[in-house]
Amino acid sequence: MTNRNLKRIALLLLLLLTAVGLACCKGADTAAKEYVDYLDMSNWAYYGIGEGKPVDVFLLCPAVDTNDEYNMSLDDRKTKEHFAGALNMERGLYEETARMFAPYYCQAALKVFGLPPEEQAPYLDFAYRDVSNAFVWYLAHMNKGRPIILAGFSEGAYMCYRLMEDYFGQGVNLSAYDESVDWGDSLSEQLVAVYAIGWPCTQEMTEKYPQIVPAKAEDDIGVVVSFDCEAPEVSETFIIPAGVKACAINPLNWKTDSTPAAKAENLGACFVGYDGSIKREERALCGCYIDPERGALKVTDLSSADYKPGLPILPEGAYHIYDYQFFYRNLQQNVQTRTEAYLAAADALPAAA
Fold first, then answer.
1. Rounded distance, CA 169 to CA 192, Å?
2. 3-state SS of the chain?
3. What's the pLDDT at 30?
4. φ and ψ of 312, to 5 deg
């Protein structure tokens, strides 16, 4: 049997597991085997919201589960409300441009990120199983060859990288999803961009997975837009620990070197509530530059006393929870810019014979 056929069988089995799965899941520490049923629309926070938009966004939620568990239960109504609220806080970056899809998944709870890295893996793997199954469901039932934006913040960004690893490389047989679609040589041909904010894109990733390409400019496509914010005095966080170099891009001047961007370039910081409404907006709130040693995005013109880290596992001056909020309007504009660049490039391709 050829490798191509083996891959197709594996993908079909994954789709079958998704279709027959149960509608709830438990933490990885319970060794549960249930699968989330993505045929059940209650397991989607967003499903096809924004008909008529030219591209799709597959949006993945950050960690919001503060319970004393390792993976979120989808039976927990209160935590699901926080999950939906966290998505609402960032949906405004994408909803003017893209049709939105966002699955509920048994995410790794916040306590997992306080564990040593080697102990985090089973809980992140358990969460990714849901993400992968939801993405397969989306491809099989809704994508139909449409352009895709992958987007996520923090844990959601980590999950975007996992999807890139598994589904966007060369040689993945996609005909199992929908034989009526000409998928081309790779799903990467449909990729507008990946907004993996709050989790580092590293050199090791790009070497192991050549489909993961860090953004180099404001309008390149098929690339990863990534950064994580800190005060200038911060030297390490669990997100970018000592010895890790992130491949970041500056969301104000769209440069990848340490050229500083003045706060005048900031089109608007937006602080958004769980209902998606903007509670406060301030133009020219802050500037930033990329630390040439670690690749962290250093934020200027602010006092760390005014912007607390919000998480006990982060030091003073870690602005992680404000990553997209500090640069909200610039990111919103950039989603549109990259989408327009993708559509223009697609229109420029020669018509099929």
1. 15
2. CCHHHHHHHHHHHHHHHHHHCECCCCCHHHCCCCCECCCCHHHEEEEEECCCCCEEEEEECCCCCCCCCCECCCCCHHHHHHHHHHHHHHHCCCCCCEEEEEECCCCECHHHHHCCHHHHHHHHHHHHHHHHHHHHHHHHHHHCCCCEEEEEECHHHHHHHHHHHHHCCCCCCCCCCCCCCCCCCCHHHHEEEEEEECCCCEHHHHHHCCCCCECCCCCCCCEEECCCEECCCCCCCCCCCCCCCECCCCCCCCCCCCCCECHHHCCCEEEECCCCCEEEEECCCCEEEECCCCCCEEEECCCHHHCCCCCCCCCCCECHHHCCCCCHHHHHHHHHHHHHHHHHHHHHCCCCC
3. 43
4. -65, -20
Q: Residue ranges per domain, the chain? A: 3-347
Q: What is the pLDDT of residues 267-295, one digit of tens each?
A: 999 999 999 999 999 999 999 999 999 99
Look at residues 43, 159, 145, 62 and name the one whose alpha carbon lies nearest to residue 101. 43
Task: Mark the ranges of the chain whose per-residue pLDDT is less than 50.
Answer: 1-31, 352-353
| Single pTM value for the model | 0.90
* Residue for token pair 């239960």: 73
